[in-house]
User: What shape does this take?
Amino acid sequence: MRFLHTADWQLGMTRHFLAGDAQPRYSAARRDAVAGLGALAAETGAEFVVVAGDVFEDNQLAPQVISQSLEAMRAIGIRVYLLPGNHDPLDASSVYTSALFRAECPANVVVLDRAGVHEVRPGIEIVAAPWRSKSPTTDLVADVLNDLPATAVARVLVAHGGVDVLDPDKNKPSLIRLANLDRALADGAIHYVALGDKHSLTKIGDSGRVWYSGSPEVTNYDDVEANPGHVLVVDIDEDDPQRRVTVEPKRVGRWRFVTLSREVDNNREIADLDVNLDQMSDKERTVVRLALTGSLTVTDRAALDALLDKYSRLFAWLGIWESHSSLAVIPADGEFNDLGIGGFAASAIDELVETARAGGDESAEDAQAALALLLRLTDRGAA
Assistant: This one.
């Protein structure tokens, strides 16, 4: 028996920094990743898909988002089982009980809205642990595994949430306890655990049967999500008494959220950054956050600003990570002597240089910015 394990689609997600057409393209990519599961299922021979929570970004969504999302699920073509998670719990305002969802839900889509065992077909069962609020007061997985007997059928647990071995807050009541999972696996009550909540592909424990699939399309920077953009192809051998499991990750994501940390103390290091950015592929689907440190002349800062302006037009988004950057601008001796400016204007430039060198306050930053702009206007800071 073969199926696809995915999670954390969070359809309807917006990223505040994406402007212009980047946000619609990002949203479309998330829907395309969903619809594309149909081709992956056909290629691998998967019978069905389980989505381990957070199908939607929120319960309050624009009607267009719901309709387009359901159409993407319809395109998969095989049965798709949706588990409500912490973003889209089965509370009073649940998207799953809305009139629009009920009216347009495709025949191949099933909401796992009841805790416990669901039959997929004779010989295959899903054990579901849906969220009914954003803050459960118990371990929902422990609740459904309690007194669950061993079975002769292949059984998949579909759950959402943090596992205690990864979470620093060991006292959180909703944490999934790995010991409970391992016990249920050893007893034959379940044979595979499909988890959602962690957006990066992650194997949990030593059994090889407990996995986070991660989100099929990136949602955060690479220092937070080390390995997003996957779907898991899971095989459970129905002829093996031990129900042997094999798991194969398949990359489906196309976007990247990248953090680059660089020293930029001179024009050579700025040129190196230019080369790095130029060589990055798929710029229209790449978000770049720059952590930059260094001390620059005004000329070099103008060149850096010109570089950033150029690449901000090419990437889906590119900008400086202010909280992790420290750029000092110190005018060099004679840096403004050859501009051909005299009289009152030259005196004003001298005053700006003095203020910029003083540093330490907003007036110095304003002076540095004004000098950099002056150099750019005179083509001295051209990238």
Q: What stands out?
A: The chain has two domains: 2-251, 256-381. The chain is about 30% helix and 20% strand. The domain at 2-251 is CATH 3.60.21.10 (Purple Acid Phosphatase; chain A, domain 2).
